């Protein structure tokens, strides 16, 4: 007797089209034997299905220019499918579960998660995720600096040499050559990103991406508050102030538009000090925010109904943000747990952020 496929993970990802090569936000569901993707979460039939048997999974953060956190899934018939996660931890979680599902499928076993995460490129003794967390530690990690170069200011970044120095000083590697290999793995896996012309040109022009052990090669943490600015007007400086806060939470939510009242998937990034939530088109990256919600003094609550939401099949897991100037924003999380987490995070930022 055949059993129903086991649902392992689901959520919004941006998928690259197989015919027109356009990127669109999809609701993606991972089962123990395949992946289904839907145009909308509420659709009853999937837009497509990808079998996992004989497949392989890898991350290709450097292969699509400015697109970060891209996952490549190759099927047993050598067809390639590309998905983009909203942030680093989300990408790693999808890769881990897809890889485990493929392994269990090939071995004829039921899906079960392993208790530890291993690097997908280095030996089993190296955990890039744990190393990345250590590097980001505000007390003992790599110091993020404000550096000026070529009439531009790079915020929250560091040099390639600084990375190697830190690895050696913290006994993560025995010499600079080993440190360079480890730092390059962090770059290839998307934990580190190039900033500035020198490091970017190396990533774009060399087939085997290598981190540069140089004082003029700049990099930044993938989910940091990094941004670059030229010598601009006071208005630009004020506008960029919004982006200087620490990222508290990020991910994809459905958001109601202010004018047409339609609902679209938006990548939301919550920052504190200053307290803002910026929202983006998830298919176009983070170079330009579609809008910002100033959260200082705002109120956020769970709601059961939103006017005109039903005609868009929008029901459940809704919440409302009312700003200090009484602007109302309506959003929908994917699950009750996710809604609770967003509400708690926004409430905290609204109280403490400026």
TrEMBL record:
Q: SUPFAM superfamilies, from UniProt?
A: PH domain-like, Winged helix' DNA-binding domain
InterPro entries per the record? DEP_dom, PH-like_dom_sf, PH_domain, Pleckstrin, WH-like_DNA-bd_sf, WH_DNA-bd_sf
Q: Where in the numbering of this chain does the DEP domain appear? A: 138-223
Is Repeat one of the keywords? Answer: yes
Keyword annotations for this protein, in alphabetical order, are: Acetylation, Phosphoprotein, Repeat
For the PH domain, which residue ranges apply?
6-103, 246-351
Q: What is this protein called?
A: Pleckstrin-like
Q: Which organism is it from?
A: Huso huso (Beluga)
Q: What is the lineage of its organism?
A: Eukaryota, Metazoa, Chordata, Craniata, Vertebrata
């Amino acid at each position: 007797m055949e059993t129903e496929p086991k649902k392992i993970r689901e959520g919004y990802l941006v998928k690259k089209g197989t015919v027109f090569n356009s990127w669109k936000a999809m609701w993606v569901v991972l089962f123990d034997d395949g992946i289904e993707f839907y145009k909308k979460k509420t659709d009853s039939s999937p837009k497509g299905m990808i079998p996992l048997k004989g497949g392989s999974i890898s991350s290709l953060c450097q292969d699509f220019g400015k697109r970060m956190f891209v996952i490549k899934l190759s099927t047993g018939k050598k067809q390639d499918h590309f998905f983009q996660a909203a942030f680093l931890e989300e990408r790693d979680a999808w890769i881990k579960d897809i890889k485990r599902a493929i392994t269990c499928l090939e071995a004829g076993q039921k899906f079960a998660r392993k208790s530890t995460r291993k690097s997908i490129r280095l030996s089993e003794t190296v955990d890039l995720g744990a190393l990345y967390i250590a590097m980001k530690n505000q007390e003992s990690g790599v110091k993020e600096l404000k550096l000026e170069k070529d009439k531009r200011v790079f915020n929250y970044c560091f040099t390639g040499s600084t990375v190697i120095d830190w690895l050696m000083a913290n006994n993560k590697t025995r010499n600079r050559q080993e440190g360079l290999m480890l730092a390059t793995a962090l770059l290839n896996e998307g934990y580190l990103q190039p900033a500035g012309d020198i490091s970017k040109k190396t990533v774009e022009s060399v087939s085997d991406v290598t981190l540069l052990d140089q004082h003029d090669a700049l990099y930044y943490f993938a989910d940091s508050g990094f941004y670059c600015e030229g010598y601009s007007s006071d208005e630009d400086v004020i506008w960029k102030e919004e982006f200087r806060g620490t990222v508290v939470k990020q991910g994809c939510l459905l958001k109601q538009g202010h004018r047409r009242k339609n609902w679209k998937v938006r990548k939301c990034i919550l920052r504190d000090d200053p307290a803002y939530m910026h929202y983006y088109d998830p298919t176009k990256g983070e170079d330009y925010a579609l809008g910002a919600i100033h959260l200082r003094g705002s109120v956020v609550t769970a709601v059961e109904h939103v006017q005109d939401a039903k005609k868009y099949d929008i029901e459940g897991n809704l919440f409302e943000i009312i700003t200090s100037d009484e602007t109302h924003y309506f959003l929908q999380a994917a699950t009750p747990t996710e809604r609770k987490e967003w509400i708690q995070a926004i409430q905290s930022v609204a109280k403490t952020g400026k």
